[in-house]
């Protein structure tokens, strides 16, 4: 073999080896391990967070959740109870692991992939174990799935823990002086928010108010029993007042009772907007609504309100939907009152006899920048969560500058779960943790505690008053006004708003001016600016700062709505318009994407000399809210065939600003008209000749018949 051939053979061998290595490595590189499916989950909770000696039976809820892709087999459920009470919540897992008292056993069927199922296990009184003493005990639930394949491999056992209060809290660690057998109690204060559900983006409609008032009335009644402090979303007050005499009767009565309530109260920022987020954006003042006329226009003031305040508003027209800005009845000039009454001012709609100015930013997000912004606004009292401060020994605290109400973080988390957890079992678990936390506070001889109910959870809960009813049923909880709680000192813990939330809010705020500029084309420009500001304030709501909230999705919906509004009033373009005669009226379709009536000027100019427009300017064209309007433009063709177009400009009624410019393509085919006329004329002539010929023929046939009859 020559040297050249040897080199070639070596090269081929090396190439084959390399290909073999690559072929062997490719599968290893391509095989990306699939993410492990999430494991099944077990949840347990007592249906009643307190077990009393007189209970005939005790029931527990057990939930099996299967987020995976395989069926979870049926299996056995076992419940056990710890013999010794716990002193702190941190002992729950350890106490549950050593639970030695049998409670009950049961079975639960298989759980399909991506589903969950709950079961109730009831224990009769005579089968209940007797723990050593009263207090907070741990319940251990274990689920052992069956082995359907008979593999002999021990199945994975699921476990879950929950506290339960047996008979009440244990004796206090430090009993009061002179009280040998003192009962453990805790002085609890509440901040109860009155807020709107998350699906209301601006102000509620009248039908929404009528549906929400029974929930608010129940919450207010329980708040009175708890001597709570009310934190009120101004949208509730302004929304009812804006409709005036047209507001539902139950809403007007509720507002009247709320105004006369002896409970201390303060107004949240409009839409419960987060001052901490505004400070993080560098705002030098808090956002505020600019106008609520887009809702007030649907109201009317009854005789009592008119005599008291002298306010009035237009009579209702149509069915408004201020939640999304719909409704345009009062904007129709044909329905306008020549002497339109004056709408109530913002000050009249938002006035509230609060005793002090208090701010309640998003939980755990307050820093010195936020406090400084509040001080600029004249607010020196703030509600803070206990994990947002250090060295807080009391529910009320003095800060280096100002004062604070310190809500208990653990109580707040448990109450949020009791209100808003996705399943009944998990809500019962939240109620059990809340009761246990209050029992721990009573056992420790706590000087007092402050519970601030989560605003988003209360707003979206079907019946938040049930949580307050639970608190009323706890014998060791003493309702206490906030003002009677002890006061201490505290320091602010470093915190702030997440960068992602700040970026999304900054982008939304930057689009506000672009949207409100389009108000120039409206009959009432202030409607759009007020509507957009109300939407923006709702986007700043503290409920969206909570962990687990998909704020990116919320911001995406807001951005999509902004894009719809930014369409303003535009021309609906068509692919092509045929002009088959020398003159015609070309229809121009206008689309108003705004939720309020627009009044615009339309300018139509030919794009070439092939067309002549005899009337180019159309003023005061009314385009109803979220609807279409047609303008007929007279056009003459100067050529027999060709391509041209109309340049249509839409601007405000005054001519400025211009909001849309579009070109409508037009194909000129005037010869078609000539050919069609000749064809029709020829056809008519042929029909005429045929008719004459037919008539003559019939006459001849008739004459021949007459002459032949006598001969016969």
Question: How would you describe what is shown here?
Answer:
This protein has 712 residues and is of the alpha/beta class. The protein folds into four domains: 33 residues; 126 residues, Immunoglobulin-like, CATH 2.60.40.10; 307 residues, TIM Barrel (Alpha-Beta Barrel); 104 residues, Immunoglobulin-like. Helices cover 34% and strands 25% of the residues. The strands form seven sheets. Strands 2-8-7-4-5 form a five-stranded mixed beta sheet. Strands 9, 10, 11, 17 and 18 form a five-stranded parallel beta sheet that branches. The protein has a five-stranded mixed beta sheet with strand order 12-13-16-15-19. The chain is elongated and about 125 Å long. The N and C termini lie far apart (128 Å). The relative contact order is 0.09.
Look at the structure and give the mean pLDDT. 85
Count of DSSP E strands? 29
**Broad structural category:** alpha/beta
Measured on Cα atoms, how large is the radius of gyration? Answer: 38 Å
> Mind telling me the CATH class of the largest domain?
Alpha Beta
Please state the second-level CATH architecture of the largest domain.
Alpha-Beta Barrel
Strand content: 15-25%
Give the strand order of the largest sheet, numbering strands 1, 2, ... along the chain. 2-8-7-4-5
- Tally the helices: what do you get? 18
Mind summarizing the main beta sheet? Answer: 5 strands, mixed
Q: Write the CATH fold name of the largest domain.
A: TIM Barrel
Rough shape? Answer: elongated
Report the end-to-end length measured between terminal Cα atoms: 128 Å
- Which stretches of 5+ consecutive residues score pLDDT under 50? 1-30, 176-181, 303-320, 325-339
């Amino acid at each position: 073999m020559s040297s050249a051939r040897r080199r070639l053979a070596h090269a081929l061998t090396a190439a084959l080896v390399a290909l073999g290595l690559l072929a062997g490595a490719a599968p290893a590189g391509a095989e990306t391990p699939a993410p492990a499916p999430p494991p099944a989950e077990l949840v347990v909770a007592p249906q009643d967070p307190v077990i009393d000696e007189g209970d005939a039976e005790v029931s527990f809820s057990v939930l099996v959740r299967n987020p995976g892709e395989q069926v979870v087999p049926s299996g056995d459920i076992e419940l056990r109870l710890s013999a010794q009470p716990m002193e702190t919540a941190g002992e729950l897992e350890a106490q549950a692991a050593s639970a030695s008292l049998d409670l009950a056993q049961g079975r639960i069927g298989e759980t399909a992939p991506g589903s969950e199922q709950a079961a109730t296990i009831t224990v009769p009184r005579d089968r209940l174990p007797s723990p050593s003493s009263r207090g907070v005990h741990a319940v251990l639930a274990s689920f052992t799935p069956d082995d359907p394949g008979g593999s002999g491999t021990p199945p994975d056992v699921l476990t879950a823990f929950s506290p339960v209060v047996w008979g009440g809290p244990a004796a206090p660690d430090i009993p009061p002086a002179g009280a040998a057998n003192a009962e453990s109690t805790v002085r609890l204060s509440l901040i109860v928010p009155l807020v709107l559900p998350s699906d209301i983006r601006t102000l509620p409609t009248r039908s929404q108010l009528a549906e929400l008032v029974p929930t608010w009335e129940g919450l207010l009644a329980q708040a009175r029993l708890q001597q709570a402090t009310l934190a009120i979303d101004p949208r509730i007050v302004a929304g009812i007042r804006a409709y005036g005499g047209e507001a539902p009767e139950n809403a007007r009565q509720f507002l009247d009772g709320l105004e006369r309530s002896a409970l201390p109260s303060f107004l949240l920022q409009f839409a419960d907007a987060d001052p901490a987020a505004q400070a993080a954006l560098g705002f030098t003042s808090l956002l505020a609504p600019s106008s609520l006329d887009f809702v007030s226009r649907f109201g009317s003031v009854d005789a009592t309100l008119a005599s008291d305040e002298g306010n009035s508003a237009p009579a209702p027209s149509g069915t408004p939907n201020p939640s999304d800005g719909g409704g345009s009845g009062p904007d129709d000039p044909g329905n306008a009152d020549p002497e339109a009454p004056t709408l109530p001012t913002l000050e009249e709609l938002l006035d509230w006899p609060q005793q002090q100015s208090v701010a309640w930013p998003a939980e755990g997000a307050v820093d010195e920048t936020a406090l400084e912004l509040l001080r600029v606004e004249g607010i020196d009292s703030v509600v803070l969560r206990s994990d947002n401060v250090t060295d807080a020994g009391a529910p009320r605290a003095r800060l280096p500058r100002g004062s604070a109400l310190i809500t208990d973080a653990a109580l707040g988390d448990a109450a949020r779960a009791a209100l808003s957890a996705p399943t009944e079992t998990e809500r019962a678990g939240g109620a059990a943790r809340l009761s246990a936390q209050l029992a721990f506070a009573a056992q420790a001889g706590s000087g007092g505690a402050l519970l601030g109910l989560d605003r988003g959870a209360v707003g979206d809960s079907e019946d938040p008053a049930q949580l307050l009813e639970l608190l009323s049923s706890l014998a060791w909880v003493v309702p206490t006004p906030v003002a009677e709680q002890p006061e201490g000192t505290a320091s602010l813990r470093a915190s702030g708003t997440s960068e992602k939330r700040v970026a999304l809010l900054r982008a939304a705020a930057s689009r506000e001016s672009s949207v409100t500029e389009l108000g120039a084309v409206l009959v009432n420009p202030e409607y759009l600016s007020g509507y957009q500001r109300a939407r923006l304030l709702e986007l700043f709501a503290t409920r969206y700062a909570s962990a687990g909230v998909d704020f990116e999705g919320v911001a995406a919906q807001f951005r999509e709505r902004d894009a719809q509004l930014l369409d303003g009033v535009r021309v609906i373009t068509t692919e092509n318009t045929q002009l088959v005669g020398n003159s015609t009226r070309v229809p121009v379709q206008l689309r108003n994407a705004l939720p309020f009536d627009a009044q615009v000027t339309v300018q139509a100019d030919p794009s070439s000399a092939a067309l002549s427009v005899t009337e180019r300017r159309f003023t005061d064209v009314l385009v109803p809210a979220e609807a279409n309007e047609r303008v007929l433009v007279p056009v003459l063709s100067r050529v027999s065939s060709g391509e041209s177009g109309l340049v249509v400009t839409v601007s405000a009624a005054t001519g400025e600003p211009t909001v849309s410019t579009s070109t409508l393509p037009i194909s000129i085919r005037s010869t078609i008209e000539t050919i069609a006329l000749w064809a029709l004329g020829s056809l008519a002539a042929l029909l005429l000749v045929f008719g004459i010929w037919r008539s003559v023929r019939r006459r001849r046939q008739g004459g021949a018949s007459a002459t032949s009859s006598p001969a016969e």
